[in-house]
Design goal:
Length: 419
């Protein structure tokens, strides 16, 4: 069994004119790197595109449901769990679960608030609380409903609550119902802690949470440490944006325009990077008790299978923003997977912006810059990482595969070629 715990994924992908990720001003997201402006696609946008893709559902299962609209969520889960529990139990469970969402938003963590990039968020129903767009898993709610359904205050506990109510001496007294609620909450918290493993395993049924994690600070929501780190994608070269001036023509008014506006766009070669902690995946799936435990052959095999699918997603999925206008459905031109002792990004290969190659563009010079940088890093640090490459263009790196599927198979086989 390999001792390498990290799988580093490097992707170089060229996008034709597009605007794949926008900011609050409807402009392309960007970043300054190496002293020049680069177009940027945020990790949130890229992760959302991957987890909502058809490939993810086909090979990794249905992802979690991310919403802050409790009323719509209740309707959905009541319909899915109506044969298992009474409606009141489902509603109470979701309400208790939502407390963690409120706390998470106040803590402003990316995992709890992962935004749906370039998606309009419509608020419907009554929104009395500010709730984060948290990940909800029906299997997790099913387990929690089972816990709540079996918890009630006994006759002795009810009497104790009444005695406590009568003995209060402070000016600000609690009502009898508040005292009962406090006692019930303690029983529920204790029961959830006792069945924490079952709750966590149920949560793992949503592979996106096992991969990207989830942050919570209170309530019934369980914190899951993410197994995958995804970088913001940036262009390998400097980019000057273009502006598209467009009109919506009124067909019933001769030479009439019903709308005039502008949209920023550009083209560029992007570097994508992700690092996968294989042991953390196994922990999140309930296949390892803790990060220091020994892997099992079956546990690592499962983690590698999921990683192979994540490689496919990182290499092929493109965010959906403005795609009806630009259709920049470009697959990657270069993919490298390597088993490593530590996460290693190659972003600094492009800290000096890649120069335009004439005749040609930025794509092949970007692959050359990556080749040169990663070779220097491996030699300088004496790394013996196993790697596999898929490239549509020439590369100086060894272990080149003819098809992306061969790299995926190499990952599944723990860095070995299939005999």
């Amino acid at each position: 069994m390999s001792e390498k715990n990290y799988l580093n994924l490097h992707v170089i992908i060229s996008h034709s004119p597009s605007c794949l990720n926008r900011d609050d001003m409807n402009m392309q997201k960007s970043a300054i790197f190496g002293g020049v402006r680069r177009v940027r696609i945020s990790s949130q946008s890229l992760k959302r595109a991957m987890r909502t893709s058809g490939y993810f559902k086909d090979f990794l299962g249905a992802p979690s449901v991310r919403t802050r609209n409790l009323e719509l969520l209740k309707e959905k889960f009541i319909d899915e769990l109506k044969h298992d529990f009474e409606e009141s139990i489902i509603r109470e469970t979701i309400e208790r679960f939502a407390k963690a969402s409120v706390a998470a938003q106040e803590n402003d963590t990316e995992e709890a608030m992962e935004s749906d990039e370039d998606e309009a968020v419509e608020e419907t129903g009554k929104a009395s609380k500010k709730i984060a767009c948290a990940p909800w898993v029906v299997d997790e709610i099913r387990v929690l409903c089972g816990i709540l359904a079996g918890i009630k205050l006994s006759a002795d506990e009810l009497k104790k609550a009444e005695d406590t109510f009568k003995k209060q001496k402070t000016k600000k007294k609690k009502s009898l119902q508040e005292i009962k609620d406090d006692m019930l909450n303690k029983k529920i918290d204790k029961a959830v802690k006792e069945k924490a493993e079952a709750v966590k395993n149920a949560c793992a049924s949503a592979r996106d949470i096992a991969l990207y994690g989830r942050m919570a600070t209170s309530g019934l929501m369980t914190t899951i440490d993410g197994a995958v780190s995804v970088a913001h994608s940036i262009t390998t070269h400097a980019v000057d944006a273009d502006i598209d001036w467009f009109t919506a023509v009124d067909d019933l008014v001769p030479l009439g325009s019903a709308h005039l506006d502008t949209q920023e766009f550009s083209s560029g070669v992007f570097y994508r990077y992700a690092s996968i902690n294989l042991k953390q995946i196994q922990m999140n799936l309930g296949l390892m008790p803790d990060i220091k435990a020994e892997e099992t052959t079956e546990g690592r095999k499962k983690a590698l299978e999921i990683s192979a699918h994540l490689l496919h997603l990182l290499a092929t999925v493109v965010p959906s923003a403005k795609q009806r206008s630009f259709a920049a459905f470009n697959p990657s031109d270069f993919v490298m997977a390597s088993f490593s002792d530590i996460p290693i990004s190659a972003a600094n290969a492009f800290e000096t912006p890649v120069e335009l190659e004439k005749p040609g563009g930025y794509l092949q010079p970007s692959i050359k810059a990556f080749d040169n940088y990663i070779t220097r890093v491996y030699e300088g640090y004496g790394l013996n990482d196993k790697k596999a490459i898929f490239s549509l263009w020439n590369t100086t790196l060894e272990q080149k595969k003819e098809k992306l599927e061969y790299v995926k198979e190499w990952v599944r086989n723990d860095g070995k070629d299939k005999k």
